[in-house]
Specification:
The protein is α/β, with parallel strands linked by helices. The protein has four helices and ten strands; from the N terminus they run E-E-H-E-H-E-E-E-H-E-E-E-E-H. The strands form two sheets. A six-stranded mixed sheet has the order 1-2-3-6-7-10, sandwiched between helices. A four-stranded antiparallel sheet has the order 5-4-9-8. Helix 3 links the parallel strand 6 and strand 7. The longest helix has 14 residues.
């Protein structure tokens, strides 16, 4: 669920992509982050969340902690009574000083929007690309005997500044539409330009 490549003129930009937030994401993430951390030639990181449909809320907050100071608000959960609970980063981040750009698009949903929103609202990264999907609800799965199951919406989540992205999506700092007719990834190129 996590891939790493080096891009840009002298391969000094880390292109770190999270395809989805699943059970193995954090161990895969730690491996790639350690490699970036040991590379002293890195000018910046492109965190690519395009077409990431989401997954675990806690995973998104944990990964946000790689870039934010410990104790930063990653997301706010609001229940049906309007009671708000802040989820703060607990990890001691290895990449808190590295310049960061986040890539998103209409396929970035749920946990990937939480991560992008946390980095944007904490003024840690520029967000580049297209407006995100807009899934602002938190669901809990329930399994029944016989193999059936149901997802129940139990709360909504807000970005650290209190924005509910549901059906509106997260608007990037720099909006750039993906050029399907081009041989190059114009959104990634824009992100690299910002870092170089």
């Amino acid at each position: 669920s996590v891939t790493l490549a080096y891009v840009g003129k002298d391969k000094q930009v880390a292109h770190l992509r999270i395809i989805k937030f699943g059970g193995a994401t954090l161990s895969e993430w730690d491996k790639e982050v350690s490699e970036i951390y040991m590379n002293k030639n890195i000018k910046g990181i492109v965190l690519d969340l395009r077409n990431n449909p989401g997954g675990y809320l806690e995973g998104a907050v944990d990964i946000a902690g790689e870039f934010l100071k410990t104790g930063s608000v990653g997301v706010i959960e609001e229940d049906s009574n309007g009671v708000k609970t802040e989820f703060k980063t607990q990890r001691i981040g290895k990449l808190t000083q590295v310049t960061l750009v986040v890539l998103v698009n209409g396929g970035s949903a749920s946990a990937s929007e939480i991560l992008a929103g946390a980095l944007k609202d904490n003024k840690r990264a520029k967000v580049v690309g297209e407006k995100t999907f807009g899934k602002g609800s938190i669901q809990e799965p329930m399994d029944f005997s016989g193999g059936s199951g149901i997802h129940i919406t139990i709360a909504r989540w807000l970005t650290p500044s209190g924005v509910w992205v549901n059906e509106k999506g997260l608007t990037p700092d720099i909006e750039i539409k993906f050029d399907e007719n081009s041989k190059i990834d114009n959104q990634l190129e824009e992100a690299i330009k910002l870092l170089e």
